[in-house]
Structures are given as structure tokens and as C-alpha cells.
Amino acid sequence: MSIQEMSIQAETDPRFVSRLTKNTLALIMAGGRGSRLGPLTQWRAKPAVPFAGKFRIIDFALSNCINSGIRRVGVLTQYKSHSLIRHLQQGWSFLRGEFGEFVELLPAQQRIDENSWYAGTADAVYQNIDIIRDHEPSHVLILAGDHVYKMDYGRMLARHVETGAKITVGCVEVPLHEASQFGLMEVDEVGKVVRFVEKPKQPQPMPGSNDHALASMGIYVFDALYLLELLTKDAGTLRSSHDFGHDVLPDAIEAEGVYAYPLRDVHDPAQESYWRDVGTVDAFWEANLELCDVLPELNIYDEQWPIWTYQLSTPPAKFVFDHPQGRGYAVDSMIAGGSIVAGAEVHRSVLFSNVRVEPGSHIEQSLLLPRTTVGKNCVLRKTILDEGCRIPDGMQIGVDAESDARLYFVSAGGVVVVTAEMLGQPHLVR
């Protein structure tokens, strides 16, 4: 198949699989601290944070790989990685090594420098340079493990080869008022990147728009040999912070050969696709509640592009009691398996696996993470309960702002995060 034929197929086939994807090694960056998520990352890495009732954030990048035909994946871990590693072992061990398929764990091992852990995203990849060489890929796909989106990497790889790029950067349009959180790009008429600025304090709009900028998604396709060359050069540069966005990408742009690839819907390349950076408590809360809409922008019910995960063996969700003193029901909500709503009201909320809500309680605009329990006659509004929390009878959260600020974590947008430790209970994060 010619490059032109592969490009045409990539634009028309939502499940584009070829030698390009089979000869690609994907590396998922999953070692960041995730400090902007506050208490939710106190005991777990950000990619391991539960999302959408039954998944974890990293499941989206991994599912994109599998659905795109990329079955050689390394996950780079570092901080508080126990729950992430266990999730990968339980849910992602189905690939067959004898067929050259794998999801490998690549923890920080001080393989290159015995005195330091991963110093930046580029350094994290460089410290595994021998493993990359051993797999002999034609291309290396670098992914962030903490974003929620669906994307066909096969199309991106085909465009990378078609343009003759050395590096292709996945990009998405973001509102200008949020743009300072991202690396921003300027591109010419053929999509070549002419300038890249990492998290500018005063972001500039993209051409043709007054209120949007073109942001890097933290997704990169590299020619494998070129990547090894860049990493070796960066490792020997004393002034470098050893980060793709800060150092490697700007230097490569000066040498040319860097192209942008806009995020597109996996079924309709003419349409932009859903993408969320759920790196703050407010963004995480909002992205989960968006899924309660009648037609949410992110379709997690898509049978042609499924999101894979470790599936707990749980009974169906149950709603019990139907009398004036307590009626168990949920409206505009998602309720995961193993959950019981007993004579309680749930409005626009997400209940994760094995959650129990007792009679007389009222849950509104809240996220109840796995294995949480809410006692009788409680009120929870705009609240996130972390794993294993047990709310005693009669407690109110999200009602008294002054009390919430004194006892719990309250985000800039007014979302109250409650952990087991805040309630005087042992943490049960899995």
C-alpha cells in the first residue's frame, strides 16, 4: 500500500490498522504528580483516578491504542503508582506476548543516572532508550495518560508519513482564557509548526479567531531514529529541563520538520472530537457530570470505539423503597454496578461501583467514587467523595460554605472534596 493510499484509507476508515500502527511503539506518560487534583491524588497517580463511573483516566489513552491497532505500549510510571500498576495488571494483561503485543510497565528505575528519577517528559523517555531500541519500532507515539478523549492514532501516523514530518504534534483548539495552561503553536498554511510556546502568560489567538488558540495535546509522533537522536542531544544539554514542550519541541521546530495534526472524530474526520484535560478538581467534576446529559459530547456507549477497563464482577445497580418517607430513585445520573440507592434521591450525579446511599438522603451534582457509603438523611451538593468514604447519618456537605472550607478541600469553583482521612477514617484508595 502506498503512502497516498494509506492516507486515503486513514481518512475514511474509522478503524485504520496497517503496518504503520503495527510498527509503532506507544509510550504513555503516567508519572506526573497531578497536584492540581488536590486530595484526589494524595494516594494515587492522576491517570489512576476513577472516571465516568467505572473507568480510570488512563483507560482512554490505552483504549485509543487498542482501537487504533497499536498493541505495543509502555506505561511510564513514577509517583504513587501502586493503584495504577494494579489496575494495569488486572485490566490490561489480556494482550498476547507471543504475538508481539504488550502493555509494559516502565517505572522510574534510575537506569541511566543512578542519582535521579525522571526529571521531565523527555528524560523519562530517554531513561528507557535501551528498551525503545530493543523493540525496534519505526515510529514512537508519545501520549499523556491523564486526558479524556477518543482518537484514531492510525490517521495521525498516516498523515505523519504523508507529510514527511520528523515530528507530528496532536493539537486542539482551546478557549483563549484557558490557553495559558497549554503549550501553544503557530502553523503555516500546510500545517507546519513555525512556533511553539509552552504555557505563555499572555496567550495569543490563533489565525482566524479572536477567542481560541491552537494547543498541543501532549501527543507526539516521532520517527524512531530521530527521537533517539533528539533525546541523546537533550540529555547532554546542561541548560535543558529535559521536557518535550519546553526543550525538545522548540529546538526541533528551528530545524524544521514538525507538523501539527488536529484532533478529529474517530467516525467523522470532518468533525472535531471531544478532548478534556481533567487536571483540576473543577474540570474533573464538570467532565464527569457532562456524561449525565441526554446526548453527552463524549459517547462512552460507542460500540465501535469501546473504552476498555478492568471490570469488577458486581451485581446490577438497585433502587429500593417506594413510599412517602423515602423513595429510591436517580434522575439525570449514572449509577455503576454494585450500587444501591435505598429510599434516597439522586439528581445529576455519578455513583461509581459499590456505592450505597441510605434512606432519606439527597445527592445532587456529586461524584461518589467506589465503595463510598452515605448514611440516612444526609445532604450532598456539588461534592466529590473519595474512595471508601463513610458519611454518617445526618451529615450535610455542600450546604454551609464556611463549614466546608474549615473541614474539607474546596476548589476554586466551589466543589467540595472529601477524603476518608478528613472524616477520621483510614484511607481505602485502590
Features:
globular; glycogen biosynthesis; 7-stranded mixed β-sheet; 31 strands; 430 residues; alpha/beta; disordered N terminus; EC 2.7.7.27
Question: How would you characterize the overall build of this protein?
Answer:
There is one protein chain. With 430 residues, the protein is α/β, with parallel strands linked by helices. The protein is built from eleven helices and 31 strands. The strands form eight sheets. The chain has a seven-stranded mixed sheet. The longest helix is centred in the middle third of the chain and has 12 residues, at 224-235. The chain starts with a helix and ends in a 12-residue tail after the last strand. The relative contact order is 0.13. Alpha-D-glucose 1-phosphate binds at residues 118, 183, 198-199, 216. Residues 26-292 form the Nucleotidyl transferase domain. The record marks 78, 117 as: Could play a key role in the communication between the regulatory and the substrate sites. Belongs to the bacterial/plant glucose-1-phosphate adenylyltransferase family. Residues 315-418 form the Glucose-1-phosphate adenylyltransferase/Bifunctional protein GlmU-like C-terminal hexapeptide domain.
